[in-house]
Write a structure and sequence with these properties.
The protein has a six-stranded mixed sheet. A three-stranded antiparallel sheet has the order 3-4-9, with no helix packed on it. Helix content is 26%, strand content 31%. It has one domain. It is built from four helices and nine strands, in the order αβαββββαββαββ. The protein has 193 residues and is an alpha+beta fold. The longest helix has 17 residues.
Length: 193
């Protein structure tokens, strides 16, 4: 579901722009390939920076009840994604304009669901998506954290904005065990006086 969520975000942001300036790619590899020349076929690069498990939702029940049958599974993994939009343009003023449009888009739409989102459902990789909901919030790192991010990416800092994508659910359809519900208890009760 990681690729699918990032692809949905890419397609939605591209829909807000004229043309398709946003691409899903690793800004670190693009910066190292270009050296100091800058500029690519796409002006905005969307990069996944980090994953974080949402530990507050770790203790959810790991079973489902269907009639009188019970199915046990491992709990769903809930993730927060940290994504970076980098305005990779030779012209600084154009880079800032592109970045502003990305921020405008997410100011207008923070919650993404199956009902309010358009994406290419004909794409084979996207065909298994049935139901989803995630929230995209602006994430503002400190100057020190931002320095670490760009140092890790190995490139010069370019205009960018970070977002936190909350509660992406990952679940494998592996059943641990099945059984029946206990519907009655037989036996006698003895009162102790």
């Amino acid at each position: 579901m990681l690729f699918e969520v990032l692809q949905i975000i890419t397609e939605e942001v591209n829909g807000y722009f004229e043309g398709n300036p946003v691409s899903l790619d690793n800004i670190a590899s693009i910066a190292s390939e270009q050296g100091d020349t800058g500029g690519t076929a796409t002006d905005i690069i969307l990069t996944l920076l980090n994953l974080q498990e949402e530990v507050t939702l770790k203790n959810r029940p790991n079973y489902s009840i269907n009639g009188t049958n019970i199915t046990y599974k491992n709990p769903i993994v809930n993730l927060n994604l940290y994504i970076l939009f980098s305005a990779n343009n030779d012209k600084y003023d154009e880079a800032l304009k592109n970045l502003s449009k990305v921020i405008e888009f997410f100011q207008g739409k923070k919650v993404f669901t199956q009902a309010n989102t358009t994406y290419n459902r004909d794409n084979v990789a996207m065909s298994d998506i049935t139901n989803f909901k995630f929230v995209v919030d602006l994430f503002t790192p400190t100057f020190e954290e931002l320095n670490f991010v760009w140092g890790t990416l190995g490139g010069k800092q370019i205009p960018s904005v970070m977002y936190k994508v909350s509660l992406v659910e990952l679940e494998r359809e592996a059943v641990l065990s099945k059984g029946g519900l206990i519907t009655e208890v037989q036996g006698e009760l003895n009162h102790i006086n």
